Fold this sequence. Notes:
Helices cover 65% and strands 4% of the residues. It is mainly alpha-helical and 401 residues long.
Amino acid sequence: MNRVKGPLATCPLVDWMPLSKLPNEPAMLNLRALIIALLVAVAGCASKERPPEPPPTPVVISQSTWRQIDSDIVAASKDATGEAKDYSRELMQRWRTLVYQRTEAEFIPWFSSYWTRQWLTMKVTWYQLNAEGAKYPAVDRLALYLQEQYQDRVLEPVAKEIRPDWIMAQTTQLYVRLLREQLQDIPPRYGVPLDQFDNRLQDIPAIELEPGASLYQLVTAEPIDSQPAYAALVTRLHNIPGAAGTWSAQAGITPVARMTSESLVTERTTRGVAGAVSAMVGRAAGLVISLGTAAFTAMLRENERPKMEAQLRSNLHAAFDEKWLDLVHNPKTGVMAGVYALSEQIEGSLASTVMQPARYEPPAQEQPLQEPPPQVVPPPDGQPMQRQQGNSDDEDSYQLW
């Protein structure tokens, strides 16, 4: 035999030479090189002759597993909603604290100061002159002016740091991020391929507002507000009357403005009477009367200032707290409006497919077993029937003897 037999002989990569023609050099280096070449040739032939692997068998997920997955998606949405709610309460509490602090430091001292009262007196006079003597229109115009001052001195400076519409946007994005994190843990839990799970999320509507978005499109958008349907939802929520960021202090300022306007009208009337009297009695006496009236008015204002500040503080805080509670709890116009809009849509879409807990049904009440009456077997002909007392006091048994 002068050629290598077996699979090496059929390999097209190597032109095998007869063993008799192999060199006789005893050098180990040449021998090792030959062995390596043979091994490479064998590996190449084996790789070419290996049959192709069959395609992987697709993983089939049962309907009960998909129902359980839907239940986990609903649970993830509820958990994300709870955490987003706690986050919004913390931010709203911070906003309220800043508004209280700035109201106390900026608006109340300004409103109750002497020069502000002088300026308000001039405005009330001007309002009345342009209202043909009507009293309440002047009060309403003064309330509007004070509302603008409250907006400029309190709400807008605080809004540069934090405001309700910003809180709503941050809370909604937090909900989406938390939901995204929890959804990533579901496929490994049930051994579901990622592509099948993504297709399932594609079938769940998250936003119906045009152009619409599925749950997959919502949780994969980065940044979140780049998703067109999400941006349309936020815009619609901001434009709802009474939504976050549209609060005004008119309800809290109007009672104080009315009281202030009435007192300013009284002061203006007193000044007019004092001016008329001083003109009648002469320059020297009139000067004394005018100075006395001004001193009395200033003293009266200073005495009324603590009461006025307390009344203003009470009215503003009451109106603010009422709106604050509405912004916290109202599902349509509050800071959680975006979260509720998304969670209700997602959870409602899965309401008919989630796995419901098994209902408890009490076992049917068993009827007590009733023993059949004793059967009397007639004796054969010619045999007497013998009566025997049984174990029970009210039952008789019969035996044949």
